[in-house]
């Protein structure tokens, strides 16, 4: 998720999960099943920390782009199989699902995304990625985990082991999803289109959790109720013309002009067709047309990125894109239906709306687990257990995995993963964060690996614990 805003800093709650056993009275009085098992969780995770950190460094060093996560998926599958999970592979090309059925009870799903970014790493870490690959359209690109998906995947592996060792303490079904291709927002859709539930028989979740690294201090967690993100679409629009000599445009039908006029008019969808109190963004990330200076090409393609706060806003934007493209084609002489613009909707992510009731409960669980001992905030926005809304303009396709599943409760939580000293030094220099997602110097501190594993395990056991 390339996707933070200044608002995310306004709700950071922190301190680490206790690394030593709670006092007997504290454990006895807690109402959270997950919090009550913190001593056992700590014992297991701390004994497994070095191994998990080695897995994280290995995945980081061998970063893979979306739908190319063959090696990473293999690591996940092997780890889950060794722990006795029912493992399903190749869902949505490279997706992996591990299922552990452990008696009667709810179904809890944890999702981790596996793909990296087309970014050249500049962290200087001894395990930095030096990978380069040909991307989906044939360009040679650098590849690095500059968004923390390597940590997410390692948290899934850590959760899998901890839950297997505590199997006598919980009842229900645990579903672990290692998802491909979050960055192009195509992976969750690919898994659903491939019949994640219908064909592959993965149990539908009652509770769904996704964690994401954040460039704020290790030992902190950012929580919010309600809408936390925008929805998004990746759309390609291709215009067709007859082409010709650059000196004689009257003998050609120029698709570049159709595309250029559409670029300008697309912004009127935002300024004149959508509610200004809602979020709507339409970015043209690429225009591709022609090769030579003196040749009018036969095709021109636009690659669009949409963000929106509601499904209704999405419909206004998508229908507006189609109308403008078609009308510009007709304006410049296109009448043959075979030459009308084509519109391809590639990636999609719904708006993430955290379940209010469950987020209130998570707040209490993390406090009981001593995971939320302090509020670190420029402008405190927490009153009692009511979590104020923190909304970011970016997107993540996680909640597409539960779209349309009646009664499923979803939670998407940011987990601080920056070294506290590095964060403090950045703030002293007047910076908001020391680095940001998708920047070449994005670093997940190694101590974030056990931290995220503990958070995920506490929340899973709170739902599934006996």
Give an overview in words:
This protein folds into two domains: 6-229 and 352-464, Zn peptidases (Aminopeptidase, 3-Layer(aba) Sandwich); 233-348, Alpha-Beta Plaits (2-Layer Sandwich), CATH 3.30.70. A nine-stranded mixed beta sheet has the order 2-3-7-4-8-21-9-1-18, sandwiched between helices. A four-stranded antiparallel beta sheet has the order 13-15-11-16. The chain has a two-stranded antiparallel sheet with strand order 5-6. Strand 5 and strand 6 form a beta hairpin. The protein is an alpha+beta fold and 466 residues long. 49% of the residues are buried. The chain has helices spanning 24-29, 33-36, 38-61, 70-82, 149-165, 187-193, 255-273, 311-331, 356-368, 420-428, 448-464, and strands at 12-14, 86-91, 95-102, 107-113, 131-134, 140-143, 172-179, 207-217, 220-222, 226-227, 231-240, 244-245, 280-289, 295-296, 299-308, 342-349, 353-354, 374-376, 382-383, 386-387, 409-418. The longest helix is centred in the first third of the chain and has 24 residues, at 38-61. It comes from Ruegeria aquimaris. Keywords: Hydrolase, Signal. This is Amidohydrolase. Residues 235-331 form the Peptidase M20 dimerisation domain.
């Amino acid at each position: 998720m390339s996707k933070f805003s200044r608002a995310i800093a306004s709700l950071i709650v922190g301190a680490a999960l206790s690394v030593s056993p709670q006092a007997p009275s504290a454990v006895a009085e807690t109402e959270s099943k997950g919090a009550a098992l913190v001593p056992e969780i700590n014992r297991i995770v701390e004994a497994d920390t070095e191994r998990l950190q080695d897995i994280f460094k290995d995945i980081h060093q061998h970063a893979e782009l979306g739908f190319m996560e063959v090696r990473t998926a293999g690591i996940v599958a092997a780890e889950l199989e060794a722990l006795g999970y029912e493992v399903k592979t190749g869902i949505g090309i490279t997706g992996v699902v591990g299922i552990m059925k452990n008696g009667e009870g709810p179904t809890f799903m944890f999702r981790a995304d596996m793909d990296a970014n087309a970014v050249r790493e500049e962290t200087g870490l001894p395990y930095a990625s030096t990978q380069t690959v040909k991307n989906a359209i044939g360009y040679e690109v650098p590849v690095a985990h500059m968004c923390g998906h390597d940590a997410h995947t390692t948290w899934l592996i850590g959760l899998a082991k901890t839950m297997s060792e505590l199997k006598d303490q919980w009842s229900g079904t645990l579903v672990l999803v290692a998802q491909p291709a979050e960055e192009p927002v195509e992976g969750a859709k690919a898994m659903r289109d491939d019949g994640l539930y219908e064909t592959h028989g993965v149990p539908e979740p009652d509770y769904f959790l996704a964690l994401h690294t954040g460039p704020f201090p290790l030992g902190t967690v950012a929580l919010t109720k309600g809408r936390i993100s925008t929805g998004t679409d990746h759309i390609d629009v291709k215009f067709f013309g007859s082409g010709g000599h650059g000196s004689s445009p009257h003998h050609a039908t120029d698709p570049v002009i159709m595309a250029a006029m559409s670029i300008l008019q697309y912004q009127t969808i935002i300024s004149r067709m959508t509610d200004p109190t809602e979020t709507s963004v339409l970015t043209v990330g690429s225009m591709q047309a022609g090769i030579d200076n003196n040749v009018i090409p036969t095709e021109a393609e636009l690659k669009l990125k949409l963000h929106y706060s509601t499904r209704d806003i999405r419909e206004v934007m998508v229908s507006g894109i189609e109308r403008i493209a078609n009308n510009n084609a007709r304006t410049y002489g296109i009448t043959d239906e075979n030459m009308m613009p084509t519109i391809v909707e590639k990636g999609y992510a719904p708006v993430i709306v955290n379940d209010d009731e469950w987020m209130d409960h998570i707040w209490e669980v993390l406090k009981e687990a001593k995971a939320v001992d302090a509020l670190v905030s420029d402008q405190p926005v927490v009153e009692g257990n009511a979590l104020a809304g923190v909304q970011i303009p970016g997107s993540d396709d996680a909640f597409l995995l539960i779209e349309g599943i009646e009664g499923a409760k979803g939670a998407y939580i940011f987990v601080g993963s920056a070294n506290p000293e590095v964060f403090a030094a950045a703030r002293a220099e007047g910076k908001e964060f020391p680095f940001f997602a998708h920047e070449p110097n994005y670093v997940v501190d190694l101590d974030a690996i056990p931290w995220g594993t503990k958070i995920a395990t506490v929340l899973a056991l709170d739902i599934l614990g006996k």
